[in-house]
Each structure stands twice: as C-alpha cells, then as structure tokens.
Amino acid sequence: MTTEPSPIAPPLPAQPPVQTPAPTPSARRRAGLPSVLAFTFVNSLGTGVVTNGIFFLTRQAYGFGDAANYTLGIVFAAMYIAGAVAVGPLLTRLAARTDAISHRAILIALMLVLGSACLLPWGVHDPEGGRSAWSIWVLAVIYGPLTGSLWPVVEAYLSGERRGGVLRSATGWFNIVWASAVVLAFWVMAPYVEAHPLAIVAAVGVLHVLSIPVLARFPRDPGRHLDHADHEPHPPVYRDLLRTFRVLLPASYVLSTSIGPFMPGALDRMNVPTAWQTPLTATWLATRVAVFALMGLVHRWHGRWSTAVHGSAALLIGYAIVVLAPRVFEPGPAGVTALILGLAVFGVGMGIVYSAALYYALEVGQAEVSAGGMHEALIGVGYLIGPAIMLGATGAAGAMGRPGAFEWIVLGTIGTLSLGVATVVGRRLVRAGRAAEGAAGQ
Fold first, then answer.
1. Considering the domain 33-226+233-436, what is its CATH architecture?
2. What is d(CA 92, CA 95) in angstroms, rounded to the nearest whole number?
3. pLDDT digit string (tens) for 92-146?
4. Which one of 19, 183, 195, 277 has the fewest beta carbons within 10 angstroms of its own beta carbon?
5. Distances (CA, A) of 45 to 136, 187, 193, 195, 439
6. Can you tell me the distance from the alpha carbon of 353 to that of 241, in angstroms, rounded to the nearest whole number?
C-alpha cells in the first residue's frame, strides 16, 4: 500500500509550473547494507525475546497459564498492527509539514522509548516486594506499536535505491540476519529463564539503546524506489504472486503465533526441563534461517506458483505434528523427537512464505514505508488471530468439560482457515494458468 500525494491545483497560465526541488544526495541515497544489517541484528535480538520468547518469561515470572499468555499475545498483536498501519501515513504527513523530522530521527526516538519500556517490568515491584504483573501488560501496549512502526522504516532503508538482483541479495541477507538473531536470543536466554526472567527483558532494553550509534551511518532518509528503464523490470506475474503471498503471510503467522504461547505448557506436559525449552522451540526458527539462506542464493523460485504450494504444505504438515505430539505421545524421547520434527518442517514453510512475501512486497510494492507497513500489518493480523484461536479453543474445551478436546478444536479451526486460504490460492493458480495458455495461443 502506497500513499498517494495530495492533488495540487494547476498553475495559472501566465505562470511557469512550480518545480519541486529534488531531494539532496545526502538525504536520499542508498543506506549501506552492513549498517542496516548491524542495526537489524541488534534489534532482532530484542524483538526475538519480547515478541517470541515473552511467554516463557511470563510463565516463570508471574505464573501465567496458557489463557493469560494467549491474551497477552492478542494485546501485543493489536498494538503491533496499529503501529505498522499508522507509521507510513504518519511519516508522509510529517514530511509534508516539516523537514525537521527525518526517518533516522524517528528510529533514534524509537530506540530510546523501547529501551525505557523494557526496564519497566524489571524495576517495578508490588508493595510486598513481589513482581507486579501489570507492568508486562504495559510493556505489551508500548512495545507492540513501536516495533510495528520500527520494521517498516528499516525495510524502507533496506530497499531504497535497490531493485532486481541487488534487492534480492539484500533481502536475502536481511532475512538471514534477523532470523539468526532470533535463534541466538532463544539460546542465550535459556539458562536465565528460570531464575532471572525479567532481567532478560531489561537486557533487551539496553540492546535497543546500544544500537543508536549504528544509525550515524544511515542517511537522513531512505533512498527512493528504483523504477527506471536501466533497471530490470518485474514480470506481470509478480503482482499476482504479491496478492497471493499477502494471503499466505498472515495465515502463516496465525500458525506461528499460536505455537508461541502453546509451547511452554506443551513442553511442561512433556517433562522437558526449563533450560531446554527455548532452545527446543528455536528448532523452527533455525530451519527458517536455513531456508532464508537457500532462497537468498537460489533465485529460480521467483515468479513460480509452486513456491506458494510447497510453502503452504510444509506449514500445515509441520503445524499438525507440533499440536498433536503432546497429545499422541507419552512424555519421553518419542514425543520430543516428533515435536522437533514437526517444528523443523514448520520452519521450512515459514521460511518459504516469509521470503517470498517480503521480496514481492519490496519489489512490487516499492521502497516506501507504507509498503513495509502493509507487510508488517499482515504479520500483525497473524499475531492477533493465532492466540485468539488458542484462547477460544481453551475456553471451548473447558466449557465442554473435556480438556483433551483442545488440540482437536485447534486443528479443526486451523483446518477451516487453511481451506479458505487454499481456495484463494487455488483460484489464482487457475487464473494464472488460463492467462498463460491465452498468451501462448496468441
């Protein structure tokens, strides 16, 4: 989604047209890839802990059960969507009113506020000296919209003045770096989850602040989207694929964000020690990194509908194994092995869908903050629906008096959702096939 400029009234005939001055080279130039990647890595360590790992921390710090964690996920997601949707139009309006505020200044402000917010749960205690759970809800309300605003701006710096093979390579490295940071965060936090859960969140705040010096190497504003004749044009099928992956992307995050708050309770039921729970959960995050690397190196998937089919299949198969493993297997090596296998397959699907969705968003959607904002907002939709499904299934199973029905309610709901997504993708596949046949017959 891009924001159209406001219409300008035509000049009077006696006056020459008003020429808008071109942006200065210092304001609009390509951001150095190493700087973008360094900033991305540090901040992804933080968002890996707060966005993906917070459910393990709240279980240890506040004794949150599954329902509380699902609710926390819903609150975070609603705020994330608000930030992702608002940041593009907000920056456009600010740019129209004043030159004093830059994208780089916005990033610095975000780092300072995020850093301060992460110190809140660690520093706040109730009158008896215990931990105050309200502070984690405040963190979700602050952290959600700010990270929803952060990544569209970073993606604009990543894609500005890049297109074609250069953009493909940059996007591939971007995916590898942020996803590797999330995996690393899950491993590094593992020994401290049980004894120091809130200190981990405070450390994230320090990381956000420490990333500010990297921004000195960013241009004042992101470069423009390259759309000139001397750059490789994208085939028309890219637009169809962009629309398709804008359906698959939130669907994939429905699955992944329902897995997040589900895993702490599932691993407890399977008798997995606390110190091993986050590394085991990181299995799907690690296989996602491997797929990011592969898709960044091999470009034959561009423009192919089979990418959408393979990614969807891996998502559904892996998800079903993960949800059913704690129910089908008794606690022990067999159940844990099945769970790891399911997570690995699921990570392959997540890597395929995310890589394709981001590439088409930046290549076709142009290097505007609103294009990245749409991409992040779609992720936020998944963040919202996933925990909502799990919370609803928990309530339904409790109302039925059959806790064992939880997994089957989840799979039934996800199956219905997946059928709708498959119908949309299938129709577009048929349309694309007919269009190709028509073009060949001419």
1. Up-down Bundle (1.20)
2. 5
3. 777 667 777 888 999 999 999 999 999 999 888 665 556 778 999 999 999 988 9
4. 19
5. 18, 11, 15, 20, 48
6. 11
